C-alpha cells in the first residue's frame, strides 16, 4: 500500500514543460549549439589572423595609412554599421519568438508587430543585413574610383581582405536566414529542432555583428 501511495503522489506532481508545446526541459546540451560555438571559435581565430595582418602591415606603412584613410567615408560607414547592429536586435526578437514556439504571426495583420513570430523578425533581419551588404558594395565602388583596389597597394589589399571576408560571412548568414524562414512554410508543426536551428543562426549573426564592430573601430576610427 505504501508503494502504491508513493506512486500516486509522484504521479500527481506536475511536470514542467518547455516553451514549445510537447517538449520537456532540455536535460543535456544541444549538440547543434555546441558544434556551432566550436565552429565560431575557429572563425574567431581566422579573423584574429586578419587583424594581426592589418596591424602588422600598418606598422611598416604608416605614411600610406595616413594618406589612404583620409579617403574613407566615416559617416557613411557609421550609418551602415548602425543598420547591422539594429539587425541583431531584430534577430534576437526572432529568437525570443522561436523559443516560445511562435513560428509566425498566424492570422494576425502584418502591422500587428506584437503578434509577430520568428518568421517576421527574421525577414526584417534579412532585409537589414542585405542593406548592409549592398551598402558595402556601394562603398567599394566609390573606393575604386579613388584608385583603392585589391592590387593597388598594401592598404587596398588589407582593406578589401578584411572587409571582404566579413561581407562573405554576412552573405552566408543571409542564406541561413532564408533557410530558416523557408522551413516555417514547409512544416505544419514548429518543433524544438527547428527552434534550435533559429537559435544557432542567431549565434552566427551576432558573431558577424561583433566582428564588424571591431573592424569598424579598427579601420574607420583608429585609422
Automatic annotation (TrEMBL):
It is a multi-pass membrane protein. Keywords: Cell membrane, Membrane, Translocase, Transmembrane, Transmembrane helix. GO terms for biological process: aerobic electron transport chain. InterPro entries: Cyt_c/ubiquinol_Oxase_su3, Cyt_c_oxidase-like_su3, Cyt_c_oxidase_su3-like_sf, Cyt_c_oxidase_su3_a-hlx. It comes from the Bacteria. GO terms for cellular component: plasma membrane. Residues 7-19 have a biased composition (Polar residues). GO terms for molecular function: cytochrome-c oxidase activity. Its EC number is 7.1.1.9. It is found in: Cell membrane. It catalyses: 4 Fe(II)-[cytochrome c] + O2 + 8 H(+)(in) = 4 Fe(III)-[cytochrome c] + 2 H2O + 4 H(+)(out). The chain crosses the membrane at residues 37-57, 77-98, 119-138, 158-182, 203-222. Residues 1-22 are annotated as: Disordered. Residues 1-223 form the Heme-copper oxidase subunit III family profile domain. Belongs to the cytochrome c oxidase subunit 3 family. PANTHER family: CYTOCHROME BO(3) UBIQUINOL OXIDASE SUBUNIT 3, CYTOCHROME C OXIDASE SUBUNIT III. This is cytochrome-c oxidase.
